[in-house]
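Hi R.,

Here's the chain you asked about this morning:
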Amino acid sequence: MSAERTAPILITPGEPAGIGPELAVRIALDRSDDGLVLVADPDLIERTAHRLGRPARVIGADEPGGGDRIRCVPVALSRPAEPGRLDPSNAAYVLQTLDEACTRLNGGRAAALVTAPVHKGVINDAGIPFTGHTEFLADRAGVDRVVMMLAADSLRVALATTHLALREVPDAVTTVSLERTLSILNHDLVERFGIERPRIVVLGLNPHAGEGGHLGREELDVIEPLLARLRGRGLDLVGPLPADTAFVPARLTDVDAVLAMYHDQGLPVLKYAGFGHAVNVTLGLPWIRTSVDHGTALDRAGTGTADIGSLEAAVDLALELVSRKGETTTKPQMNTDERG
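And the predicted structure, written out as tokens:
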């Protein structure tokens, strides 16, 4: 661990019956010098390590790691977890790991959080209202607005709306909501990613970005007037652009992020481009949170065949963002008439 960073990077392994515990154990052993601390059931971690053929000893979060020692904040399972078999009795455990991580982050006892996948269905089956990591972390951090962004290499896609039924999206695309989303996105690209003046492409909601109002008026009534006003405040915004052509490589030159209006408008492209090494980042939190780009993969749990690439990328990005705090990168600016 860097001498300049004494607070650890926390990892929550997510659903105990999924691939998260295996991935967390592997990265904790492989990256023992990076100051990683798991927030999990110690017995689950030791059993998982033994099953992987890499026996490990779970130690306290404040003890020195390295070798076969895995640092851990202990949270007890309700019942032993079996790979591939969901158990609603362990749903509360999953949220307790997240809650403990948030407590440490809010108290300045951790530098960042990396999360493995949870299974929203089994948490809801246990009678616990839960819509996802993003909303849970926002509540625990005491903020009323966050932005989900996925990154794969130089491609970054943020979302104006996240876990909504498609029929609810148009009503959610309001001037107030979009302005807050763009403000958070621009702010964190500057403060977290060190980009001095981010260039953001904004997609239209409707096919062909509304076709001049013939295929919907959200672009004319909401998106275009807001972008014009925010450009007047100095934001570098392009759009609204039709989603079907916005991801053409030539259009993404010198673009720092794309804002999609809804989940499945932007993420299929991002995951096609980088699935397996893409990272989910929650913007707008007072601390850094990254996550994997995949689900619990119950069919692979316990087999030792899960791909660790996305978790490695999430840890790498968390470390990069922690080390980059306060830095900015100057880049060339476009002429005003080139910004769309």
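The first helix runs from residue 20 to 30.

Let me know if you need anything else.
M.
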